[in-house]
Task: inverse folding
């Protein structure tokens, strides 16, 4: 498969200053991280979306603290996505759709983050059917497929956004984008980078623009191996990070 190393920067529609918008793939529960959720709801923060992960999913009963936190973000114009773990295709789709329905009924979710989404060709038909079912639950739902790497190109036919990189800065700084990505606008792609030192923030933003990512999540935290630990708290340089992108603007 051909790769682009110099595709040129492509601009996000949601942040001023020529930078991408920000995606937050799942802070800890608002009871454990109240300051994090308060900072996310500050006016002008260039958030494209934030993921609500109640208990590795929607939980078994509605949680008023999560409803309140989600409401503050939504009132500020930020999409709140329900966390759905696909377990690399290991969960029955019926269970996933049931969790999605709870997110809509209990927290009025604006869409869904499909964590550990499979990206190989053999799983494509199933993921497309699942996406159709999820989109039927919520008009205008925003889907983010948490693939973690570039999938089969057929996944670009699924409405929403593809997380085509999730990993440490040591890998991201040398990453490349397959040629087929140049056929799509930057808002179709998201990159999530952990273990990123403050001193490399500007370089990471340049890399994201060059690779055509319309949404990014950067943190200096370390992933503990389950795909979530790095994102439970905001990075130590959060204010510096979002100020380099600029305030959120209307699409």
Result:
């Amino acid at each position: 498969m051909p790769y682009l190393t110099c595709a040129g920067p492509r601009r996000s529609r949601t942040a001023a200053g020529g930078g991408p918008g920000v995606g937050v793939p799942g802070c800890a529960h608002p009871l454990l991280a109240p300051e994090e959720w308060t900072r996310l709801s500050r006016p002008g923060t260039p958030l494209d979306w934030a993921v609500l992960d109640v208990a590795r999913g929607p939980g078994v009963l509605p949680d008023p603290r999560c409803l309140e936190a989600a409401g503050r973000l939504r009132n500020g114009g930020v999409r709140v996505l329900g966390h759905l773990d696909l377990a690399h295709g290991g969960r029955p789709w019926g269970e996933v759709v049931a969790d999605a329905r709870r997110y809509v009924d209990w927290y009025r979710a604006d869409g869904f983050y499909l964590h550990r989404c499979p990206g190989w060709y053999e799983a494509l038909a199933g993921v497309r059917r699942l996406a159709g079912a999820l989109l039927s639950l919520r008009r205008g739902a925003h889907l983010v497929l948490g693939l973690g790497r570039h999938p089969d190109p057929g996944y670009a036919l699924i409405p929403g956004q593809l997380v085509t990189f999730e990993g440490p800065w040591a890998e991201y700084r040398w990453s490349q984008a397959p040629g087929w990505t140049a056929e799509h606008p930057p808002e179709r792609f998201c990159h999530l980078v952990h273990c990123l030192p403050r001193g490399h923030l500007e370089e990471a933003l340049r890399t994201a623009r060059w690779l055509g990512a319309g949404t990014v999540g950067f943190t200096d935290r370390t992933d503990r191996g389950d795909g979530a630990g790095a994102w439970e708290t905001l990075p130590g340089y959060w204010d510096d990070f979002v100020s380099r992108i600029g305030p959120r603007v209307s699409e």
In short: Confidence is low (pLDDT under 50) at residues 1-17. The domain at 22-236 is CATH 3.20.20.80 (TIM Barrel). The CA atoms of residues 27 and 232 lie 4 Å apart.
